[in-house]
């Protein structure tokens, strides 16, 4: 499914102070908006995903799933800076008529939320019934709720935080160093920095998973070891790291990876506001904050802070060995938590 494109042709000023003459967003809609506009589900994707959640959240989005297009009008937008259709470093800068590349303007998670607000108005959406997002998607969800406290009825921030931690920044900075040390990175070409990004991805995977996850799935040598001496054998974990880097390089680019990681680092709902606490306390949606017990990148303490400051929020902790990636993989548990939470406030998930 090809995404639709929303063009905004007026000036748009970013948090950095840089003003763009316009921008565009790629977005996917599934299902139809009902007569009273009460069935909107807005899903926010994480770092390297696209605008079609039916592709990357297969256990939760689709016919007969929790977010069923026959019941809901589902909206998902590709983040500005990503390479799946929204304004990106590979697009032409209208001021130079050449690709942005290294000069791409930084969109913070707050800038992203403000861009989505313009798309919401274009789509004639007055209220969002459910907002849900994990990781960087959850960061955008929180920002939009603080910007527009009356907009969402239910929100489900998963494995996310109010301010990106020094630990998270360190992981992202190390990944950007890998890209920066790729000899091609300074070149103005589409595939600049790709080898560096492969290494960056291997670092990211260590933060996305957990000791137990690697122990269960990557222990020992690869299967092609018969007749090989010990120095010729390759560990499954090593092979996996290389494979994941190659896999990402076939579908993503280093420029998007670089700038999106910076956007994550800049995430801080308290910036320019009284405080993180005050910002979270302005949220009016009914909130269930979901945490993954083994998440080392966005540890449970960060979700505990969210649930403590968002008024009347509840906290649910999923016991999973998948680490941070649990928000993408623990389908059944997330579905049960969402259904149970909404049932506390209404008789059923709102139908068409």
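-> sequence recovered:
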């Amino acid at each position: 499914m090809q995404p639709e494109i929303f063009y905004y042709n007026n000036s748009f000023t970013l948090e950095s102070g840089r003003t763009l003459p316009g921008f565009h967003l790629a977005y996917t809609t599934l299902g139809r908006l009902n007569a009273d506009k009460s069935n909107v589900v807005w899903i926010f994707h994480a770092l390297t995903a696209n605008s079609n959640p039916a592709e990357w959240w297969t256990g939760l989005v689709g016919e007969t799933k929790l977010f069923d297009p026959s019941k809901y009008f589902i909206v998902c937008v590709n983040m500005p800076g990503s390479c799946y259709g929204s304004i990106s470093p590979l697009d032409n800068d209208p001021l130079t008529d050449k690709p942005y590349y290294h000069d791409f303007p930084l969109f913070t998670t707050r800038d992203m939320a403000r861009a989505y607000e313009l798309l919401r108005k274009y789509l004639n959406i007055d209220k969002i019934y459910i907002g849900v997002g994990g990781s960087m998607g959850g960061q955008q969800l929180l920002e939009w709720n603080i910007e527009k406290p009356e907009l969402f009825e239910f929100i489900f921030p998963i494995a996310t935080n109010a301010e990106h931690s020094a630990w998270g920044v360190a992981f992202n900075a190390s990944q950007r160093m890998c890209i920066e040390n790729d000899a091609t990175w300074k070149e103005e070409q589409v595939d600049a920095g790709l080898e560096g990004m492969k290494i960056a991805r291997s670092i990211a995977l260590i933060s996305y998973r957990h000791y137990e996850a690697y122990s269960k799935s990557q222990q020992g040598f690869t299967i092609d070891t018969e007749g090989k001496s010990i120095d010729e054998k390759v560990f499954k974990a090593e092979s996996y790291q290389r494979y994941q880097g190659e896999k990402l390089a076939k579908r993503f680019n280093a420029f998007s990876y670089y700038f999106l990681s910076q956007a994550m680092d800049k995430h801080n709902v308290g910036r320019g506001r009284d405080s993180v606490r005050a910002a979270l306390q302005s949220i009016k949606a009914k909130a269930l904050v979901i945490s993954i017990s083994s998440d080392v990148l966005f540890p449970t303490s960060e979700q505990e802070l969210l649930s403590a400051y968002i008024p009347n929020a509840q906290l649910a902790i999923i016991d999973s060995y998948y680490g941070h990636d649990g928000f993408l993989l623990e389908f059944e548990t997330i579905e049960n938590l969402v259904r149970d939470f909404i049932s506390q406030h209404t008789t059923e998930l709102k139908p068409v």
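Residues 4-165+265-343 form a domain with the Rossmann fold fold (CATH 3.40.50.1820).
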